[in-house]
Please model this.
Amino acid sequence: MAAAGEPHSSLYDTIVVGAGIQGSFTAYHLAKRGRDTLLLEQFPLPHSRGSSHGQSRIIRHAYAQEHYTQMMAESYGLWEQLEAEAGAPLYRQTGLLVLAANTNPEFQRFCQTLAQHHIPSELFTAESLRGRFPGIRPYCGEAGVSDRTAGVLYADRALRAVQDGFRRCGGALRDSEQVTDIQPGVVVTVTTSGGVYQAKSLVITAGPWANKLLAPLGLQLPLQTLRINVCYWKEKVPGAYGVSAHFPCFLAICDPHHIYGLPSNEYPGLVKICYHSGSPADPEERDRPPEASGLPDIQVLQDFVSKYLPGLVPEPAVVEHCMYTNTPDEDFVLDRHPKFSNIVIGAGFSGHGFKLAPVVGKLLCQLSVGEEPSYTMEPFGIRRFPALPPAAL
Ligand SMILES: Cc1cc2nc3c(=O)[nH]c(=O)nc-3n(C[C@H](O)[C@H](O)[C@H](O)COP(=O)(O)OP(=O)(O)OC[C@H]3O[C@@H](n4cnc5c(N)ncnc54)[C@H](O)[C@@H]3O)c2cc1C
Ligand SMILES: O=C(O)[C@@H]1CCCCN1
Model:
């Protein structure tokens, strides 16, 4: 292998830009198939500047959109396989409770998808919720549906495991190398802060930096990058909302944005509860306070916690930060560049892509080797966005 700064003497089969969970899983699948693969990451690993860091993520079959529930069947199997390879637990089953007014159409779609796919689940009324989950104070007319298969993924550990798996299959991972130029062609030439590399195909999985890399390639996707406040709330009685007390993950369908939570586990005595939106932010200046008055997300969460979860102190005890990269419909972008077919793009994971990364990585791998993808790619195509500047294509 060439040292940093020297040109690689041979041609890679594929270069993957961005070692978040999506790029790392793509590289893992490519290397497993024996492809000579280089995974490039701009920051030293591990880092907390993108979207894949932190202790925990929700994993669930439950989705209002059937295409994700379908993909999750395979994703669970691939997570198990990675767990066996890593020899360390990567997730813990806790169950998930979806909460909403029983007339809510999105809630009804969750119920339908769970039933159609025979996912073990249970329906709750406000009364039965109160009986089963004394830590929750449901309002009149509220309903719940559980997904018993859901749980928590240990995110940092999972990211490390997939990168280790990639290396074990012979893949090359170079961190602290920022991609600064991409020259398309039958052979793609990639220049980084540390060297120049060539490959037959390229996969761009750059998280909130996606549009920055795509601009010189004549493409701008309708992506919005948001700074998310990841809030942890103190239990009045330690463990009352914990995994050992069988408190589940939850997703409360609220207007305009959902609120979700994970039982206390990673930080003893603290429950993670977040707002499924944030303030627009450039990933280069993520923590700069927004100029106009930002989203009142923490206030909304405080109101929710005081009304709904009486066993928690209604003020966040710890706040961490993470980035969402949202598409207008919150479906992912998994497609080839419209002009350069050997450049594949994975972007816009809209705050729900971690659990699906094993399948996303497989699909991006299939696209880059020219194989028919295993799922319908209709929801994920670039052409669904009507406002793409035609000059770009
Ligand atoms: C607060 C929060 C909660 C979430 N909760 C859940 C959940 O419960 N369940 C779930 O399934 N999903 C969840 N998600 C979503 C999930 O974490 C993301 O969808 C996923 O991490 C996106 O991964 P990514 O690889 O696309 O992006 P990233 O992790 O940002 O990776 C992109 C990488 O590309 C690198 N890069 C960018 N530009 C360059 C360059 N020029 N050269 C080299 N490298 C470059 C970046 O440094 C970065 O490491 C959550 C996200 C957040 C923020
Ligand atoms: O992907 C998930 O399961 C969660 C749901 C709520 C928003 C954040 N992501």
In short: The first helix runs from residue 21 to 32. Residues 58, 60, 251, 258, 260, 276, 351-352 surround (2S)-piperidine-2-carboxylic acid (ligand 2) (CB under 6 Å). DSSP finds eight helices and 20 strands in the chain. Residues 1-5 have pLDDT under 50 and may be disordered.
